[in-house]
Amino acid sequence: RTARSNVPSQARPQPQRQPQRQPATRPGSGQAERSRGSRLPSAGSFGDDAGTSREQGAVVTAQVRASLDQAILRALQPCQRQNLPASEARAIRVRVAVTLNADGSLASARVAGVNDYDDSLSRYEQRMREIALSVVRECTPIRGLPAEYYSVARGWRQFNYTFPRA
After folding, report:
1. Is the dihedral of CA 65, 70, 75, 78 positive or negative?
2. CA distance 1 to 102
3. Exposure of 116 by Cβ count < 10 A (0-12 exposed, 13-18 middle, 19+ buried)?
4. What would the mean pLDDT of 58-84 be, rounded to a whole number?
5. ω before 164 within 30° of 0 (cis)?
6. Are the C-beta atoms of residues 131 and 84 closer than 8 Å to each other?
7. 127 in helix, strand or coil?
8. CA 143: distance to chain centroid?
9. Is the pTM of this model over 0.85?
């Protein structure tokens, strides 16, 4: 057996408790703000099941993806008005793989594919490839895309763009 101290418990020094601090709000901690001019909702706007903070990873729902696609197409639309080499060249659809930087500027753009078309149009393919790439180059940076959807799965960092639009 160990001997107990006869000193009353109130006489023993008690450790001081530190006051609890409120966590500091820092960028990217779930306090995501919408960019000015953006028509897209922030990550948490669709309810608990649709969006979370960046630390947990914002979820890109079908509704958010559709909104992102619309915003990207609106941004590229002014540059889509290109003179085609011939009216029948419109049958050639060029898919461009686009990667943007976090500020909306162009990181890379490359032709990812061309649809099947009539062999008689093959003389227009190279020009259609050039035009498709120029649309993306001329209309970037794309502003107003919400930062919380940049580097998440199905976010706006990478997307495909098809020229000409149907």
Report:
1. positive
2. 68
3. exposed
4. 93
5. yes
6. yes
7. helix
8. 11
9. no
40 against 101, higher pLDDT: 101
**Rounded distance, CA 147 to CA 132, Å?**
26
Q: What φ, ψ does residue 64 adopt, rounded to 5°?
A: -65, -45
Q: Of the candidates 43, 61, 39, 30, which has an alpha carbon nearest to the alpha carbon of residue 154?
A: 61
The verdict on whether omega for the bond into residue 141 sits within 30 degrees of 0, i.e. cis, is yes
Residues 6+ apart with CB under 8 A from 121: 88, 89, 91, 92
Structure-token match 């062999």, residue found: 119
Are 139 and 118 in contact, with CB atoms under 8 Å apart?
no
State the burial class of residue 10 (Cβ atoms within 10 Å of its Cβ: 0-12, 13-18, 19+): exposed
Place of tokens 């992102």: 68
Q: Are 143 and 39 in contact (CB under 8 A)?
A: no
Interhelix angle for 62-80 vs 125-138, to 10°? 110
